[in-house]
Amino acid sequence: METHQTEKNNGTKVANWFKTSITARMLMMGALILLLMIPLTLIQKLIKEREIRQQGVVSELNDKWGNSILLYGPILKVPYKTYEETVKYNEEMKETFKENRTIIKYAYFFPKKLDITADVKASSKKRNNFETAVFTSDIAASGTFETPDFSSKSIADADIVWEKATLLIKTTNLKGLKSEVKLNLNGNEYGFETNFNTINKSHTKLEELESSFIALADIPKTADRSFNFKLMYNGSKSIQFIPIGKVTNVQMKSDWKDPKHAGNFITQSERETENGGFEANWKLLNTNRSFSQQFFKVLPNLNQYAFGTEFIIPLDEYQKSERSAKYGFLVIGLTFLVFFLIQTLSKIPIHPFQYLMIGIALVMFYTLLISISEHSSFLKAYLIAGTAVIVMITLYSKSILKNWKFPVFIGTSLTALYGFIFVIIQMENYALLVGSIGLFLILGIVMFVSRKIDWGFDFTQNSKLTTHNS
């Protein structure tokens, strides 16, 4: 009987400690927040899975419309003869003899001047809720070739096979080409065919277009020769060029409002156009990049020198949802902190189960956000999910706190918190700055409100309980 009474007294002590102890409430809140991190982590994984699915659909859309464009050319390709001497043995004559073998190799010469203009009409393309940026581009190039210099390799003029010289244009996205490829050299037009052996399914490998043999009169043997050509593409993601001219000038204009200029070279100038698009210019000299104007035997991979513009959608729905979910810990922690301050200052008891229900409601916000945003815009999804969760928690708080004063304050706090996070999500350059200032202000408010809490209440109460039980 006495043992049973002791156990009952100990149970009463523990129950009273959880009811009255600030420390106990803080430990309980911490444990619940950690517990709620499990479903929040699973939601973040779900967002990632849906984003991967989106990337698959976007890749399929881009592949059908046209992929990214990387272009450089034209390149003058001139064959030349080299000779190899080999020693052979004649079995019948029982003697050795020398044999000269002619080997054809190729020299590649870049333009002296290269001017490129690109007019890009961009738009977004959707399938269900998956969105990508696509465009139609008109590219015009002109310039001059100077006389090829074979003297550096000590190649005699008699060994140069001028009559089989051709022109090369190297590019990705042949599928997206919407115009016949023709180049005007010295007033004469040359058509191009695809070099089948260079085709590769990888979009990063350049495919090669080669012209028919150039007429001897059009080869820049004695003087510079001018050229020009035009291409029309359907493409997506980006347009980039490689600066192969001694002087390369590129001018690009587009109606796309969110360009990202990429590559090793920055724009010479850039301005926003009247329709909200952009106009950008690059000017590069051969001294700005570390490769020669001519190559013998092999034309190397020059992709690392590419520059141009990426046509991006700044933040899609899944990126915004993912960024929103990263603030889940903050939302749950601050909401629990509001309830903790109300409970501590007003002495209204709140059961751990009630904290758990509030936490689950906050987690449900993200599942609502993802599912609704797949069938609507992110703004509408955020408004619907946020309103539903705020109303639910506010009404639930009324049943706990028995009056409207604190629930209205909770609803207002949640509205401000969700609004603050939405503003941060929309920002790119100033997200960290605004977020840091906002958190600093929240910390200041919490410090101001919590100054009235008697943190020694635990010890006084526990002392009273011990005296009473004695």
TrEMBL record:
The keyword Transmembrane applies. Signal peptide: none annotated. Keywords: Membrane, Transmembrane, Transmembrane helix. InterPro entries: Uncharacterised_IM_CreD. The chain crosses the membrane at residues 22-43, 327-346, 352-369, 381-400, 406-425, 430-449. Pfam families: CreD (PF06123). It comes from the Bacteria. PANTHER family: INNER MEMBRANE PROTEIN CRED. This is Cell envelope integrity protein CreD. It comes from Kordia aestuariivivens.
